[in-house]
Design brief:
By secondary structure, this protein is mainly beta. The radius of gyration is 21 Å and the shape is elongated. The protein has a single domain, classed as Beta Barrel (Porin), CATH 2.40.160. The protein starts with a helix and ends with a strand. It has five helices and 14 strands.
Length: 325
């Protein structure tokens, strides 16, 4: 199987592994012109209308292209050949973290150019019984994520097949609710836990590489993040940056089904306050994504999120979906 994959042309790989793989190669790979047989068609595919690739990558909860909590170097729904700008994409995610704590995310991206992606993510975290424990009125926080990403390198650029896609991002985050909680607990978040801020900026750099020499195509993605955020910003922001690593591996089981595993390191540069504000654990999830059609993708996941508020959030389930126009 390995030898046969090496001998196949990119267009044969597309037909073998279906629209999921086609989406990644079309969206991130270098542009190619495939000419039709002169005896049957004198027009090259470069002048034909571009076909809609599968809706990959997914949206992650901050409103950028990725899996669930980690990113991808591929751009979401970039312009197809002949289009002036890309089309928007919409996403939704839900995670039941247990103890009446839940996380929802509404996301939207727009990629005006093939190398540029703008995204927004609205995240809501229900506090469960923490409000009763603290004796406060606030029962949720909302996080607004504003994202801008630029693809520095497309995969295989400059005719160098070993080159991964490389994308840098800037992410501004604003927490609506964390200041109210801090005020209601007498400033303890700022003065004791050293989480004084309601906003911050993350800076990310991600590389993605699709390997087709294995029995099934495997996508490897790894990145670094400079962040001031506590629990992705849902817990507020510190005054100091931490550099953390994150990444994922995606296996294309069929042309429509992909299995993924992701890991996201979490910073811990704040002070715990008993069992209420605890040191958070790193995140990891196992996910299965199904491409329903060229517009819709559905995914389910099993995750470990460590300490969330006053409880553990290990062995939890969630779902996410994305629609591309």
């Amino acid at each position: 199987m390995k030898a046969s994959l090496k001998r196949r042309s990119p267009e044969k790989l597309l037909s073998t592994f279906g629209p999921g793989l086609a989406a990644l190669l079309v969206a991130a790979g270098p542009a190619t012109t495939l000419k039709a047989d002169d005896s049957t068609n004198t027009t090259s595919t470069a002048t034909a209308p571009a076909d809609k690739p599968a809706p990959l990558p997914l949206h992650q909860i901050e409103g950028s292209g990725g899996i669930f909590s980690t990113l991808s170097a591929y751009i979401v729904n970039p312009p197809r050949d002949g289009e002036a700008v890309g089309r928007p994409s919409l996403g939704f995610a839900f995670v039941d973290l247990g103890h009446n704590v839940d996380l929802e995310a509404l996301t939207v991206t727009e990629s005006p150019f093939k190398r540029v992606e703008f995204g927004y993510g609205w995240d809501r975290l229900g506090l469960g019984d923490l409000s009763q424990v603290l004796g406060i009125r606030t029962d949720q926080v909302e996080l607004h994520n504003f994202n801008a990403r630029f693809q520095i390198l497309t995969e295989g650029e400059f005719d160098q097949k070993w080159l991964p896609a490389l994308t840098a991002g800037v992410h501004y985050k604003y927490n609506d609710g964390i200041s109210d909680i801090n005020n209601e607990v007498g400033g303890a978040l700022a003065n004791v836990a050293h989480i004084p801020n309601k906003s911050g900026e993350d800076f990310t750099l991600y590389a993605s590489k699709l390997v087709t020499q294995l029995p099934r195509p495997v996508l490897f993605e790894v990145g670094g993040r400079a962040t001031e955020a506590v629990w992705d910003g849902l817990g507020g922001f510190t005054d100091n940056y931490n550099f953390v690593v994150e990444g994922n591996v995606v296996v294309f089981v069929t042309g429509s089904l992909a299995l993924a595993a992701e890991y996201k390191e979490q910073p811990r540069n704040y002070t715990a306050i008993g069992s209420v504000v605890r040191k958070e654990g790193d995140w990891w999830t196992l996910d299965a994504a199904y491409v329903v059609n060229k517009h819709l993708t559905l995914a389910v996941g099993y995750g470990h999120f460590g300490n969330v508020l006053d409880h553990d959030a290990d062995g939890v389930w969630g779902l996410t979906t994305k629609w591309e126009f």
